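Final paragraph of the annual report: two paired records, presented back to back.
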Amino acid sequence: MNFVINILQMHNRESEFEQAKNERMYFPELDGLRFFAFLLVFISHQSLLSNIPYLSSVFNFGWIGVDLFFSLSAYLFTKLLISENLKSGTISFRKFYARRVFRIWPVYYFFVGFSILYFLIIVDGVVTSPILTRLIGLLTFTDNIFCITHGYDLLPFITHLWTIAYEEQFYVFIPVLIFILTRSSHRTKIIWFVLSVVIFNLARIAFIYNKVPHPAIYVLPFTHFESIILGIALGFGGFDFLLTRFKSIYFLIIGILLFLVVIQLPNVQFISYWLTLTYSIVGLLTSFIVFSVLHNKKLIYFFSISAFVFLGKRSYGLYVYHTLGMAMAHALFKINIGLSLNPLSAFVFGLFFTIVISIISYRIIEKPFLLLKKKYEIVVSRPI
């Protein structure tokens, strides 16, 4: 009997190997979902929407779009690295980090450079000690840490770039973690997951107990972690057993219901023990949404609409440039084009400028580096 089981297990591993060897690791529906994650963030930075019924909750809790990005990234990296391990028998840390450099750094450093030049030339700003400290954070991907004491926006347009530092810090550990977990038993994976959640929760509780002010808990990976950890669990198939019990569309419905629960809770800037519940629910809702989109045919069709996929492929640029796009919209109305700056016009023009900038950036800056990134691929992933 044991011999038969071993043969079956060997056959399954060979099948997985062949699948990893021959298939492209690409989910266009997740690109479409990325665009909607960006829209949540975009709305959350449109202050004119804060007093509009129904949209005010999206404005106040649009930061969940950032967590949706975290969950998507964690899931995709986990799947990609598992597939790489199946194909080559190992995980190349060097090639992983090279791919991340070519994907993230060109646009990021271009935009940081643009912000600095704008500050020095247009604003005629003076580089004070706090600004120099913040600049060090931006250049070393530790900006999220310096946000705790220096705020988000000492330089123009860079309010949101702390999230890039946050993700880069996770990227340092993700390939090592996946390498270890792919060689671990199912029981060990569960123990790792539980211990991580417990330890990080204790760290967050310590911050709350000591009344560490916002945004410390929000911007640090070990106090704001659920979407990343659950995204990794999702990549390992930790949610797959649910498909035998429930229809995939239910998880989208649950995700939406969880969002409705979250908006009844204190927001992240209010430091209290409620934050443990808020972040836990957000981690679940983002993971359920990703899970549902991956497994429901109607959702796959909707999020694979070519326009959504096109914009989703440019979601990194959309995210990086959106503060500039909004500033351009406000500047346009200050010039006086015969229109009043209202929430709708601010949204439409800001989104328009952001999309145009990101398309140009993708063509001129991102694409050449993405072609270089392809040279370091072991598993064929998203087409350029």
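The closing record of the year follows.
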Amino acid sequence: MNFIEKYRTHIMICIIALGFGFFGGWVLCGYENRDVIKTGEEFALFSECRRIVEADGYKDFNENDALETALNSYLEKGVDKYTRYVSSVGIEQIIEGVNMSGVAVASGFQVGCSADGYILLTEVTEGKPAYEQGLRCGDVILEINGADVGKEGFSNAAPRLKGKDGTVISFLIQRGEQELCIDFIRSNVILKNVEWQMVGDVGYIAVESIDWFSDGYLSVAINELESANSFILDLRNNLGGVTDAGVNIADNFCGKNTVRQMCFNGVEMAVLRTDEARVDKPVVVLINGKTASAAEIITALMKQSGYDVTLVGERTFGKGIFQRPANVSDGGTLWYTAGTYTVGDWECYHGVGIPPDIEVVMDSEMIGTDRDIQMQKALDILRAK
């Protein structure tokens, strides 16, 4: 009896066991990777279109930009416009940092990243230093102080636009078919996003945006306007900002109230509270369709627990959700909508907005002019008290 005949039964058992093991492993592998397999099937059309373009169309295919744009379109349509992917280089943050800087604001320009990685001037305001020195919307900055922006990389080059007031930076600009050399003298300002003044016996406070400095400025404003018989808090065109700072601003005018972040996973993530109001005088809050996010939290807090508060203007934007960051495998960041805000005992106003007590419809371009009928209505209400 040879070896095979002697151990035939054992060999058959081993083969059957291996067969079941292989089959089970294949099934398990397929189950664990079902999302990858499904995604590959669903997005095969991307590869098909790319092959056609590469074979018969443009040969230079910008893979990174195409994938990032496709991913963000996918996220926006699948979730909302606030859910987005940011690559590891953080170009969106770089652009935002430059555009919100004192140099960009004072000099009158805004930037973006061109398709080939150079600095694109997306806005140049007439009458501001950037315009007066020859820069124009659509100009592409090829070099900064002799260094090639493309080689240096947008993320490294763009922050160099910022600097001290009065310092000079040399640009090589592409404008259409022309290349121009411009020595640009920076203007810079210390940004203050709260303005205040007395209007007769009314204290007027305008909050343009909300950051960690805003509540400090607002406290100074209240101190300097202490002789006012009443107040106007102008939140028109205020797209929000830091939630905690917004609650601190409202705390000057509100009694006790709460702001809750209710996560979609069922967890109550944070509770922010106002305490005792500093101001016990009538207040009109000016709002419009561009009053959003943290500015709406202020509006809701003041209407619920402020002293004699009247909302004047138009229904607010209606952003009552918050975002969280998550790191992804390529080093980038996914900012995704994680839950909703609720203020006091109100239902979440997301997608609905907060209505005014007295509606006054007006083009926002009229704000601050002699045709600002919302401001005039606020003054009429307070003077009648």
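Residues 3-38 form one domain. This concludes the annual technical report; the extension proposal builds directly on these records.
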